[in-house]
């Protein structure tokens, strides 16, 4: 078994949750999302992010609006929808339960 492979799978499982947490705080442009994830050591490339954003939008968890840019074409800013906020609440509960379970097992 490859440790890097397992770490990669764990990160993929958390990526959607982390993106939604970022967008809960404020609407964001895709490159801003990538930068914040990199700062948190959750490295993501555009080829990973854009399909995920599209899927979340198609599931009505995200919406976007075009905002004029002073440097080039308008930018697409993503934000959570009402349904996205509710879904994030469910993910937060699941994360807390999972975290408590892992901590319980680790500290036994």
Protein architecture, described:
The chain has 108 residues and is an alpha+beta fold. The chain has a single domain (3-107), classed as Winged helix-like DNA-binding domain superfamily/Winged helix DNA-binding domain (Arc Repressor Mutant, subunit A), CATH 1.10.10. It is built from 4 helices and 3 strands; from the N terminus they run H-E-H-H-E-E-H. The two termini are 25 Å apart.
Essential attributes:
alpha+beta; globular; 108 residues; three-stranded antiparallel β-sheet; WH-like_DNA-bd_sf; Transcriptional regulator, PadR family; 66% helix
Distance between the termini: 25 Å
Shape: globular
β-strand percent reads 5-15%
Number of domains: 1
Q: State the major sheet.
A: 3 strands, antiparallel
Strand order of the largest sheet: 1-3-2
The second-level CATH architecture is Orthogonal Bundle
- Number of DSSP helical runs: 4
Q: What structural category arises from helix and sheet content?
A: alpha+beta
Radius of gyration: 16 Å
Calculate the mean pLDDT score and round it: 92
How many E strands?
3
Question: What is the helix content?
Answer: 55-70%
Q: CATH superfamily membership, which one?
A: Winged helix-like DNA-binding domain superfamily/Winged helix DNA-binding domain
Residue windows where pLDDT falls under 50 for at least 5 positions: none
**CATH class category name:** Mainly Alpha
